[in-house]
Amino acid sequence: VAYSDSGYALLGAILEKLVVEEYHGFVRKVVFQKAGMADTDYPELAAQGTLVATGYTSEGSTVRPNLYTLPNRGGPAGGGVSTAADLARFAEALRDGRLVSRSTLDLMTTPATAGAGSDLGYGLGFGLREDGGRRSFGHGGGAPGVSAELRIFPATGETIVVLSNRDPGCLEGGFQRLLAATAGAAATNAEKARPR
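^ that's the sequence the OP posted. Answer follows.
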């Protein structure tokens, strides 16, 4: 069992057959609209205009726009456009049950295993992590000139969204610093809330 963009493309094709509806419209209706994600969609490249940041990719010492690497339109394996605020709304909609039931979310955030109980660090559609004793789930992604990370911390209700218009890998140092900073804040808030 492994993560695979091809697997997500296949899941999208299966979904279209099951719901007898085009993938983009179905996701817009049952995810984006329910979560209040008004600035999230799968626009065709020509329709993106100035609402989408230009991505920049590095080739050796040269940095150039990523336009030549983009598909005409994203799909189940990636390529949609969103904002940090909309991804935070998605996290909130997951937590409050607008998108899936609590039991389904629990199942989605249970570690998958491969033989002999080895934890893959992945649930059903979400990467699972523990940083400094804080459990989180979410998803990251990237392509030339595009990097994103969404982490949801169920115990505290915190959500971290980081988006960049640079190549994958550019977020790692900043994301780790953000995790450390929020861990400190979470520990301080827990200490203040402790009964005395």
